[in-house]
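cache lookup: miss for this entity combination. No prior model stored, computing from scratch. Input as submitted by user K.M.:
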Amino acid sequence: MPRPVSSICLAVLLVGCGAALAQEPAPERRQALTHLLKQECGSCHGMTLKGGLGPALGADALAGKDDEALVATILLGRPGTAMPGWERFLDEAEARWLVRQLKRGATHD
Amino acid sequence: MTKLIPGLFALALLLLGGCVTQPALRGTNDLGVVIERADGSVLIVEHSRGSVLARVQGLGDLSHGSVVFSRDGRYAYVFGRDGGLSKVDILTAKVVARTIQSGNSIGGAISQDGRLLAVSNYEPGGVRVFDADSLALLHDIPATAKPGGGLSKVVGIADAPGQRFVYSLFDTDEIWISDFTDPKAPNTTRYTGIGRAPYDALISGDGRYYLAGLFGEDGLALLDLWHPEQGVRRILDGYGRGERPLPVYKMPHFEGFAGAGNYLFVPAVGRHEVLVIERGSWKQVAAIAVEGQPVFVRARPDGRQVWVNFAFPDYDRLQVIDVDTLKPVKTLHAGKGVLHLEFTPRGDQLWASVRDEDKLIVYDTATLRPVKTLPALKPSGIFFTHRAGQIGL
């Protein structure tokens, strides 16, 4: 009986791992995304992401915030506010990668 | 003698030192300051020949850096995103005073008499007023509290005749006028419900009209400073009604009255259009289709041309509108990240900053051709000293 369970676990782990690898943008793309974050997002959130017209996006400011909600905000914007959706310029996996970078505070190029 | 020589030597050093720090005798009216947003530095430039004279460093986060000038045209006051307020001597290229006056700031203005500096702040929301000589804090005017806590962000600050500063409250939909006729006891008039989310504003070159762009609705808020008792009125209410606005990837900016004759040119929010308004009737005369969402819309000083740059992702070009026909006559592919435009005092040249290509491009406005390129690190705002004599700049 323990055998099937562990193989399921292994399968889950492998799939999870594979998905995580697939989600990591290529180095050039990572650089472009970081540039986008610093320069274009920086127009409203500040180049150092300490906030401006839009809120601060530092690791401390985002701590505890739901990843899914953050990804949705990046892609679709927040209606009724000045935050536009950016789905024309990046896909979900890339938005997810940006959220991870922001939460880690690793956003310098 | 052996004692005298070191004394003489010290004297000579002093004299030499004096010579070195003494700026060369020259005027300042062909000088300017260029923000290098990523490095917290500014360039001192001159536009008679078109050259970079010096770089001044240590000015903090300049991601939304802006500048006003002392009335003698010698000092540039640099407002940084991080609340930094720096006074730069543009002849010696030195920071002569600096203070961190708030946590997060968006811009500032200098009073009619040149003695007061007002800074509009996001955090804490409000306006702080400083002595233009010493940068000592004189007054703190907190903004209205937001429903969700904190104070409203303040945007669009401009100087008006009569020692007044006019500004807008983004989160609470207000325009305030603070009158510093008595600098010890300023008097603030508040206009509420002026329209949703004013995001930037400008004042006409004659100081009469204050015009705020609204982000939360299609329209503009107008205040006639000759008749402040008449209150704020809405103009261009519902422009573009029925069309779905595009996502706004960068807020448009209102800077200077892009006035040409009786017309005023403003960016349309969320549309690929420059709106033309007739001064006086305040009716829309035209909506000029352009190649992106306009950010800066600036009129050549003689009013014959209007130059426009655009928000991401169309920020690799400039368009020139002929005011006589109200049509775009030329698209100029300047490079990626065109962030700002500045005319020379009489409009023979336009300088543009191209952020991602680390350069400034100088255009001849008669031929519409580039005549010079200068290196600059991630440049954004370009500010020439003749602004020192202009209301609202």
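stored under new cache key. The longest helix of chain A spans residues 2-23.
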